[in-house]
């Protein structure tokens, strides 16, 4: 699928959780071309500051209406500027970029989805696609494990519970739902309720993804993890978004994948997680997860 530049128009901007905004954009070509799990690079503001485009996931895609939705958290200058933009502001998008989520082949078996913080953004469109193409998959066979640092950072309950899927919420500080990390909530619930998903989807901080990946590998469950790294170009030109990857069979050389063009969605087995952990500083995504 080819990528293109599109001038989008802000239709609506609403604060939906702590420092978290939902933006509805008129972007007909993007809405027509994008699929769940892909992303686009957004020119936050004209001029030199911020200079680089910022990557954002498609939170919802409405091809019929020619609209897309973005769910974003304010973490720095670009997202702060974005949160100040009023309806009718024009924004330049480059996309759709990256691979997308694959829907499960076996429509009848349950799927598990783990979302950490703003990682819920692309997973909402995935859930809608699963519901639309579910075949014999019942809504309640979609198990969403959704965690954040604190209650204020979670999307309102009605946004997800109204879909009829099984939602399990948790917070790191215990202010809502399960008291602890979403990965522990997932592990315990899957064990207690004997949930053996046919596919495990996840998006969230790298530390969370590391635990999700370990679970998937231990339980031999195919996984599709939407990973993040700092991006400058978004199209494979700057090589800035590299993550250490598993080498092809027979090779001992260091191997890297680029999140923007090889991903952002990867199977747990394709990343060398221990190399990310040993980089010293925690992955930068900790800052806003
Ligand atoms: C494929 C992809 C999809 C994304 N989708 C979404 C989304 O749907 N919603 C959303 O809120 N965010 C999303 N992000 C993250 C988003 O791009 C960053 O939050 C944004 O670029 C920050 O811009 P800023 O100018 O506000 O912050 P900056 O001023 O650029 O940075 C503020 C601080 O955050 C750190 N930081 C910035 N970007 C990242 C990053 N990608 N990973 C780790 N640390 C970072 C910086 O190191 C800095 O310390 C996505 C990132 C990727 C790679
Ligand atoms: S962001 Fe430039 S290569 Fe990935």
TrEMBL record:
InterPro entries cross-referenced by the UniProt entry: Cyt_c3_hydrogenase_gsu, Dihydroorotate_DH_ele_sf, Dihydroorotate_DH_Fe-S-bd, Dihydroorotate_DHASE_ETsu, FAD-bd_FR_type, FNR_nucleotide-bd, OxRdtase_FAD/NAD-bd, PyrK_electron_transfer
Pfam families with a match to the protein in the record: DHODB_Fe-S_bind (PF10418), NAD_binding_1 (PF00175)
Pathway the protein takes part in: Pyrimidine metabolism; UMP biosynthesis via de novo pathway; orotate from (S)-dihydroorotate (NAD(+) route): step 1/1
Assigned keywords, A-Z: 2Fe-2S, Electron transport, FAD, Flavoprotein, Iron, Iron-sulfur, Metal-binding, Pyrimidine biosynthesis, Transport
Residues involved in [2Fe-2S] cluster binding: 233, 238, 241, 260
FAD-binding FR-type domain mapped to chain residues: 3-103
Binding site for FAD: 54-57, 71-73, 78-79
Keyword Transport listed: yes
GO molecular function: 2 iron, 2 sulfur cluster binding; electron transfer activity; flavin adenine dinucleotide binding; metal ion binding; oxidoreductase activity
Any single GO BP term: 'de novo' UMP biosynthetic process
Cofactor: [2Fe-2S] cluster; FAD
PROSITE patterns per record: FAD_FR (PS51384)
The organism's place on the tree of life at top rank: Bacteria
Range of residues in the leader sequence: none
SUPFAM superfamilies the UniProt entry points to: Ferredoxin reductase-like, C-terminal NADP-linked domain, Riboflavin synthase domain-like
Cofactor mode of binding and number, as noted: Binds 1 [2Fe-2S] cluster per subunit. Binds 1 FAD per subunit.
Classification via PANTHER family: DIHYDROOROTATE DEHYDROGENASE B (NAD(+)), ELECTRON TRANSFER SUBUNIT, DIHYDROOROTATE DEHYDROGENASE B (NAD(+)), ELECTRON TRANSFER SUBUNIT-RELATED
Subunit (UniProt): Heterotetramer of 2 PyrK and 2 PyrD type B subunits.
Function field: Responsible for channeling the electrons from the oxidation of dihydroorotate from the FMN redox center in the PyrD type B subunit to the ultimate electron acceptor NAD(+).
Family according to the record: Belongs to the PyrK family.
Protein name stated in the entry: Dihydroorotate dehydrogenase B (NAD(+)), electron transfer subunit
Gene giving rise to this polypeptide: pyrK
